[in-house]
Amino acid sequence: MGCVCVQLQLLLFLPFFLSASAGCDKPPVLFVFGDSNSDTGGAAAGLGYPIHLPNGRTFFNTSSARISDGRLLIDLLCQTLNASLLLPYLDSLSGTSFTNGANFAVAGSSTLPKNVPFSLNIQLMQFLRFKARTLQLVTQGARNLINDEGFRDALYLIDIGQNDLDDAFSKNLSYAQVIGRIPAFIIEIENAIKVSPVFLRFFSKLAHYL
């Protein structure tokens, strides 16, 4: 229930972000962390996981590396913001410089166990490296990359936890035992937010609106 609560709070905040973005002269920047709900190609690029039709049939008319027959919530959000669809961080052949953000979500991911591909803390470490390397290149004069202001003002989405619950139920735990594990999942999400100052700033704004 706690994981659903985190997702609900983020969705409640989206109207405020959309409203603010409408009056902004800069394109929005988004960073996404999670599982198949938000994976726009991470599993295919990072694990070589084959994703064929009928996935993608209702919008892309071909496999889009999404485990869905059409668009995901993050796709609809990007289109609402008139932004390019968010590409997976792991896709080395995308040819993008990630000017509108990056998607770190990978299908099958969970909060626990940690330090396995591609748990939430691994996705966070990828983001921190991406941010540090990007800002280093900006300092060296690179253009068309996200600068410090872009990271600070970006929208951060975390949608994860369903695979943690699925794993718990698959072990034939009782309902009470599964419920008892949820606080541990939430702690991992909280820890992910606390690790990065830019996360803390964003979610502090979120708390203010909620």
Automatic annotation (TrEMBL):
Pfam families listed in its UniProt record: Lipase_GDSL
Keyword field contains DNA-binding: no
GO MF annotation: an example: hydrolase activity, acting on ester bonds
Tree of life domain: Eukaryota
One GO cellular component term noted in the UniProt record for this chain: chloroplast stroma
Residue ranges crossing the lipid bilayer per the database entry: none
Signal peptide: 1-22
InterPro entries according to UniProt: GDSL (IPR001087), SGNH_hydro_sf (IPR036514)
Keywords (A to Z) from UniProt: Glycoprotein, Signal
Family stated for the protein in its record: Belongs to the 'GDSL' lipolytic enzyme family.
Protein name per UniProt: GDSL esterase/lipase At1g09390 family
Annotated organism of origin: Cajanus cajan
